[in-house]
Specification:
The structure holds 2 protein chains of 2 kinds. Chain A is an alpha/beta fold. Chain A has 14 helices and 11 strands. Chain A has a single domain, classed as Aldolase class I (TIM Barrel), CATH 3.20.20.70. In chain A, strand 7, helix 11 and strand 8 form a beta-alpha-beta unit. Helix content of chain B is about 45%, strand content about 15%. Chain B has one domain: Aldolase class I (TIM Barrel, Alpha-Beta Barrel), CATH 3.20.20. By secondary structure, chain B is of the alpha/beta class. Chain B has a 4-stranded mixed beta sheet. Chain B contains 14 helices and 10 strands.
Amino acid sequence: MNYGIRNRIRNGGRVTRNEAVELFKSDDLFSIGKLAAEVAERRNGKNVYFIVNRHINPTNLCVNRCKFCAFSRSKGEEGAFELTIDQVLQRLSASCENSQTSHGSLKQGCGYSEVHIVGGLHPEWHFDHYVEMIAAIHQSFPHINIKAFTAVEIDYFSRISGLGLEEVLIMLKESGLQIMPGGGAEIFAEGVRDQVCPEKISGTRWLQVMETAHRVGIKTNATMLYGHVETLEDRVDHLLKLRELQDKTSGFQAFVSLAYHPKNTEIGGFYSSGIDDLKTIAMSRLVLDNFDHIKAYWIMLGEKISQTALLFGADDLDGTIIEEKITHSAGAMTGEGMTRDDLVYLIRKAGKTPVERDGLYNEIWKG
Amino acid sequence: MERITKERALDLLNSADLLDLGEAADRMRKSLHPEGIVTFVVDRNINYTNVCINQCKFCAFYRDAESPEAYVLSEDQLFKKIEETIVLGGTQILLQGGLHPDLGLDYYTDLLKSIKACFKINVHGFSPPEVSYLAKKHNLTIRETIQILRQAGLDSIPGGGAEILSDRIREVLSPKKIKSGEWLRVMEEAHELGMRTTATMMFGSVEESKDIVEHLDAIRSLQDRTGGFTAFIPWSFQPGNTKLSKEWALGDQRSAVKSATAVDYLRILALSRIYLDNLRNIQASWVTQGLKLAQVALRFGANDFGSTMIEENVVRAAGVSYSVTKEDIVNAVKAAGFEAAQRDTYYNIIRKF
């Protein structure tokens, strides 16, 4: 790696677009990884975060039907499902009873501290239904952080309700939504979106939803789906757009790189290589100098690459994730859940300090 | 590059930064294999029997002779498997099995002769525990036993059964299995007779860092004398369905994921590349680590992707299986930035992809 770039990054300076593309294209896995690890350590010390959480998908019915998605169904199609609000609550309380209690101080009454809710764009549900769902969850589990609805869903709510983005987001926030996941970003570049998800909102719209969410006080994540048809330039462009918005709002908590899974999708193709996964983690750590956290999402990367990523700039393994359906529909080779002990063990074996967090990165336990 | 000492190796294993270690291993791999080719062999693991008197605690594959799941493959079954292997472009079978109390040397020589009479395929077979067991059973020396097997058609010997070459560890894991000295003796005799063999290591059970270094040192010393090892293959203990994991579970509630992790694997792989300066080839183990980590392993010292494993039973018995075709392997190697090439048992390149 060029000495000038390394020095600048070490001193807290920024990577330019051309430099980032050049680094991404280079074979210099170790220099990139070591520098990213250094940057991560400067920001988070040896801490590696994880969360005991639960995913729930209220429906897989979706009007979008993206080509890379193996999860969505049309109404009446085999495997289609839609949960009532009562069913959602039942599932949450059932896993509440079963999930592993953590060291002492967990959110009252439940073994997990966050519920992650994303689903398809249901053809018939009204916006009120979603607001009621969030309110009902918040009422039944007031101490759990509710992380719900990607920018794509928020945009859809705005369209079906005729309300502006800000109104939609404020209503959801007032009913209990605190955090939004970063899904639906895919790759911002238009040419790529036309190929992989022409029905989905544009990159600009995604960023607009996030900017509005940040403004009304909702923290969010950001993602990038890579390894399909995009170029490395597209990846860098994506990261830079996120960096730019974060400069304005500081509303992003974490960046999550999502490795494309080819099975059962219309695009097909191959799994990204483990080397590419690690390099992408490291490059995101280097480019996103204003993000606190880089997540190695084990459901997507597998437990082995995720653990290795902790030495390439990642500082979060995400969660225990009871019940994951979306990635598994596309041939994820990981199990559907990991126990709290498993996560702690992987983090320690990587030479890091495990920190259990809630949805807002408040420390619950440190080992 | 100067040879590293045992002390230095121990130090690296315990405290080197993993990426520094990986970078050094990657540099060494590049200087040994500057052409940027990653090889693999098309072969099938054929386990002629699962009956085994050794009953190692880390093994999920063996059965008692009385078990309803016990089997010995018939010649028909075996031939069918070999035919399928050849149809798929295979050049080798890895023929290994348990130490079956009722199978004598005749069984082995008949098997080898009939395979060789019918097929043009390399028989990579009978790891040191099997060879040693046959020698004892028939009151032969190791050398005589190998000679008899070789005359019947055995081509090369796989490096299985090495586990950790430390008798202290073997006493815990596999008290009935041959000791370290015997494993090394079988390999040395085979090399002296002009046969090539591989060497393996199974880590991540109860060994300590110093045992790993002793293991690597034993392999390096023997290789200095004979030059007979073609490759070194480290892999991690797969705890599913084994006695050892049951003991762990009873002891301190450790779950199955808690054996060697990815980071441990890469560390040991990289150290192996650096320490074994007289072995040309280091294999990545996608069978135990999955394709993605195996790709990463190609930057941590490995230059070979092992076998396509048309069939694999032993790791599968421990609950770990990745469904992988030859195309998957070629694609994985290319995606990792290398040229993929099919090789034979002796690392001659047969075909590039």
